[in-house]
Backbone:
């Protein structure tokens, strides 16, 4: 006889007792089920007991989650959560250090369970843990366990981080700033301060004022990868919480203190010599090392969380360019007029010579305009006339000199400053051109003079190219865009040299000139050339070259001919699938191919995938694993520790029968995407999100995912 649908066959176990095999009626109250289980073992007072899942985090069974119990589930009988919380909190007050340690260990194990967490918090458990952390009587394992338990309880969001007291936060800061500290304590203290900074602006300011940047730099140079990651997490949290002016000041200081080298390079000290500042305040174990541990080129693979924080650091640093990118050139600014003049002089006037010595003012003005046109500015009239609407004073100003007259307000298309009034790129394009002329003067002069000697229609306009190229680089590098919550797409070469954006421009503008010649382009082909250059840069950046020199080598190897070949290959690949003979053959092979595809997909589902948990408050560093059971009947899933390989399916605590699945949702239809809103920063989450809806009793429930990458999503 087939049992009713709401009856499941399970096992219940208890220490030092023979397990019970029972049929659990889901319609029966949980208290009645507990009474029957306790009676079978002759246990009085069934209200003092509770059922837990035997695997995973040993979550308590409640009326809300009991539908997760499936056929074959193994449960265990344990102390009720309220009594267990009370017992462990009494253990925290034990005079014995061993007693407190044991209570904290059990607290850490049970803290991921929401039912248990509510019981602990309702009994002032956070305050008791806070007292242990503030007292700091034991700076070793007990303190580390207290910090871990505190973090686990706060992760549930039952209590706001803004409720923490200032003395408590200052004490945690003290642990971060200590020189001699247990290696397990400081990563947890840094993680706690990161959560505080992201969740409370007021307490974030306190953390910013109490934790010196030099101290975080010290943590970034140790051999402990977890400590490095948490230090970088707090650093990026502080930068994100700072105002634009404060962020610029902080980043300028960090670059001065060689943050880039700590991330990118390996530094060595000579025998018998001390570490350079700020390593004089480093950890005891760090002082004994002869090699300073970097991050990108470490022997240990870069973790996902560190990759995300490096992406954030790169995005915030590039974000400093946004004000220049959105500011148009002011033709009345003396400094900006002089910068434009310097561009012209670097290209056309030998050192020590001045423009048109001995020539009349009109002739000098004409020569100046022609040279700006040769630079690629849209100065079309070599003999501009004063604008009749100008006031007498401004007209005098216009005729004051050859350069000033070229840049004063002129009739349309006669002023080079007009080209830089477009935003973006605004003044950022001028910054790039000046950087190129000053740091690569030979290449700059060669670019301008080489194009000046060509026919007019074959000239590659330097200024116009620079302006468009700056826009292109800003788009490719997402300058000025909000930081994503999950992205890890940082470029290693960004940390390889100072002024990385300007250096990248110097390589790219020479690439554009090279591609222009390869395409034998004319002025009418300008847009086509920039499209090819965009493709060259995008393809090369996608390879994530480790240095600017490697980027230069790869992008120059991607010639116009190679781009055409790649385009043709991709086009043939696409068109080939639509050709009639291919379609006919495809129809014949379709049944066999579909069978192979189904088999491959089932194998991939059985292998499983690691997913990262994303909360609405901040990016978490927790992982969970999901796979299809070998018999293809249930989805098995559960939390896993970072750095641990994929778990065996039978060890996963949670199960979802495939028969209960209603639908697969993607993108904006997913409930966890709708909850997060529709801001730009959640665009990538939307693209990677999917949910499985399934029957949860009489209601519909969801299992929510965020795919690790677009490839995994596909």
Residues:
């Amino acid at each position: 006889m087939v049992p009713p649908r709401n009856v499941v066959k399970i096992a219940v176990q208890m220490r030092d007792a023979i397990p019970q095999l029972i049929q659990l009626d889901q319609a029966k109250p949980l208290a009645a089920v507990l009474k029957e289980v306790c009676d079978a073992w002759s246990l009085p007072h069934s209200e003092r007991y509770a059922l837990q899942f035997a695997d995973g985090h040993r979550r308590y069974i409640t009326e809300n989650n009991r539908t997760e119990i499936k056929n074959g589930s193994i449960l265990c009988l344990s102390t009720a959560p309220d009594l267990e919380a009370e017992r462990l909190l009494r253990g925290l007050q034990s005079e014995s250090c061993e007693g407190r340690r044991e209570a904290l260990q059990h607290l850490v194990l049970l803290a991921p369970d929401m039912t248990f967490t509510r019981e602990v918090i309702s009994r002032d458990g956070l305050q008791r843990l806070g007292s242990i952390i503030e007292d700091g009587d034991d700076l070793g394992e007990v303190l580390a366990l207290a910090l871990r338990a505190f973090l686990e309880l706060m992760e549930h969001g039952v209590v706001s981080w803004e409720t923490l007291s200032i003395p408590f936060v200052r004490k945690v800061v003290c642990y971060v700033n200590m020189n001699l500290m247990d290696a397990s304590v400081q990563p947890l203290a840094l993680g706690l301060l990161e959560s505080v900074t992201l969740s409370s602006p007021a307490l974030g300011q306190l953390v910013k004022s109490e934790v010196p940047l030099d101290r975080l730099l010290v943590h970034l140079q140790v051999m402990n990868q977890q400590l490095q990651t948490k230090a970088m997490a707090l650093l990026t949290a502080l930068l994100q919480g700072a105002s634009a002016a404060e962020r610029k000041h902080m980043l300028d200081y960090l670059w001065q203190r060689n943050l880039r080298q700590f991330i990118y390079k390996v530094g060595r000290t000579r025998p018998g010599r001390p570490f350079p500042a700020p390593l004089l305040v480093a950890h005891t174990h760090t002082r004994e090392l002869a090699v300073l541990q970097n991050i990108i080129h470490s022997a240990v693979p870069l973790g996902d969380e560190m990759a995300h924080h490096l992406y954030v650091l790169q995005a915030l640093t590039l974000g400093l360019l946004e004000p220049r990118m959105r500011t148009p050139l002011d033709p009345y600014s003396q400094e900006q007029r002089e910068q434009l003049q310097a561009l012209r002089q670097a290209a056309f006037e030998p050192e020590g010579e001045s423009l048109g010595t001995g020539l009349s003012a009109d002739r000098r003005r004409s020569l100046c305009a022609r040279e700006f046109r040769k630079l690629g500015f849209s100065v079309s009239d070599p003999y501009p006339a004063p604008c009749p609407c100008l006031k007498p004073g401004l007209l005098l100003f216009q005729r004051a000199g050859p350069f000033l007259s070229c840049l004063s307000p002129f009739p349309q298309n006669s002023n080079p400053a007009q080209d830089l009034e477009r935003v973006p790129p605004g003044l950022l394009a001028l910054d790039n051109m000046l950087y190129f002329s000053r740091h690569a003067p030979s290449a700059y002069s060669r670019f301008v003079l080489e194009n000046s000697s060509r026919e007019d229609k074959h000239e590659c306009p330097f200024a116009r190219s620079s302006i468009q190229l700056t826009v292109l680089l800003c788009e490719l590098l997402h300058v000025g865009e909000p930081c994503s919550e999950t992205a890890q797409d940082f470029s290693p070469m960004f940390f390889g040299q100072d002024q990385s954006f300007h250096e990248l421009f110097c390589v790219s503008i020479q690439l554009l000139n090279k591609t222009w010649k390869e395409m034998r382009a004319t002025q009418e082909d300008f847009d086509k050339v920039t499209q090819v250059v965009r493709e060259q840069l995008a393809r090369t950046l996608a390879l994530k070259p480790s240095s600017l020199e490697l980027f230069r080598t790869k992008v120059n190897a991607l010639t116009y001919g190679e781009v055409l070949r790649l385009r043709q290959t991709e086009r043939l690949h696409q068109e080939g699938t639509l050709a009639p003979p291919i379609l006919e053959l495809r129809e014949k092979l379709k049944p066999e191919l579909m069978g192979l595809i189904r088999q491959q997909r089932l194998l991939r589902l059985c292998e499983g995938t690691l997913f990262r948990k994303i909360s609405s408050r901040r990016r978490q560093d927790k992982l969970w694993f999901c796979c299809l059971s070998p018999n293809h009947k249930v989805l098995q899933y559960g939390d896993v520790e970072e750095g641990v390989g994929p778990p065996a399916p039978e060890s996963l605590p949670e199960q979802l029968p495939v028969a209960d699945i209603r639908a697969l949702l993607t993108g904006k239809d997913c409930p966890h995407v709708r909850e997060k809103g529709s801001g730009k920063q959640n665009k990538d989450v939307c693209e990677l999100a999917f949910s499985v809806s399934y029957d949860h009793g009489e209601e519909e429930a969801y299992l929510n995912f965020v795919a690790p990458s677009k490839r995994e999503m596909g």
